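Q&A log
Question type: sequence-to-structure
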Amino acid sequence: MLNLRGRYRRFVEHLTIQEVSGSLGDLGTLLPVMISLAVAGQIDLTSTLWFTGIWNIASGLFFESPVCVQPMKAIAAVVLSSNMSIEENMSAGLSVAAVIFFLGATRTIHLVSNYTPTSVVRGLQLGTGVQLIKKAHDLITKLQWHISYANWSDNFTWVLLATIFVFACYRTKVPSALILFLIGLLFALIRMFVTDKSTVIPHPVAGGYYPNTIIHPTPAEFRTGFLNAGLGQIPLTCLNSVVALSILIDDLFPEKHVNTASISMSVGLMNLIGCWFGAMPVCHGAGGLAGQYRFGARSEVSVILLGLCKLLLGIIFGSSLVGLLQYFPNSLLAVMLFVSGVELAHAAQAINRGVENNTIRAENWTIMLATMGALVAFSNDGIGFVTGLVVAVLLSVQRLGVQAWWEHFVEAIRVLPSKWKDQHGESQSPCLPLHQPIALSPDESEDLGSSSISKSSIIGPR
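Response status: OK
Response body:
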């Protein structure tokens, strides 16, 4: 009971207009994907609103920080471009969820965190930020500068004005995301009920909606969903939704550390439950957290509020909202998505925090940029990860020498079982020898000790 009272007091203390604005900071990612999938019949909107609302609330209460619930973008991109069925979409979500949950339950995901160089993770964050900026551009490619009766609510003028407004408020407490969302919602309502009322698009109908869709994928649909859409999502979820998110939480909320196993099991459970009802495959993510933080989120209150709104919309309006969502201006969505991308990419500036060796600092930048370049070029986090890891290995071999690198590599393999057992031993055992200093002075050698190697000297600071 005391805990409930404490949570209630915390909720009231953090219930500010900034938290309300922050709760909408990830809508630039959520709405375009959710609208596209719902209109194409590849998700059930009622189930999606119900379950994403529940997961928002549960994530806020469990992690005590504004951990977002966002679409699995790799799956959504393939499903939309390939015109896959809802059964194939859900099969992709279920297969990824099973793998991620297994990695978390067995604590194997912990090894991914330990043995992934920080420079590679920062490269993934930078690359994902650039991709969000590219997605923002894709939303406005068909807009025009010329304003007419047909495009009064969605044109480049609104893009320009919204961008100026957001960055004019960038270092203030003005709830810019909330203001943009309310303006967009007002435009959508005016278009639906006034200027475009002759258009044959279903209007929202109030009622009692609940998830009543049960998905029964066949073996062929499950195979197609996993191989075509799910397989490419697995490395993205492991690295950006789990490892990079854990690091970003440490950056933004040092007192709220969340281990990778908890995040991966959370991702797994959300989809192992929701996908059977046609809910959109979702994950947590560094990009969503960055966007919500940028627009004012500083506690779990923001995601709890967002979850309550989704749940209420799902109960009252359900799938009848699809028509209204189609009218929301892409110009405003694109600006919100652009700012979220900028914020996520900015997290990469901490790549050399605590690193004093200039050779290693330069090496970290090279690895990060190579990771980012490959990710953006191929639009695939897995390719970006492999590229960054290969570059890191090659550079470290040149810096250390083959023999020294091999000795550290063997030692890293030797301690692997102990790292698998100990979730809290990250700072005590060596990992892959990718960032070992090129040469230690006698003073540095005494600080490190003759037989131990700190994690910060090997894989860089977290």
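Response note: The chain has two domains: 2-344, 353-458.
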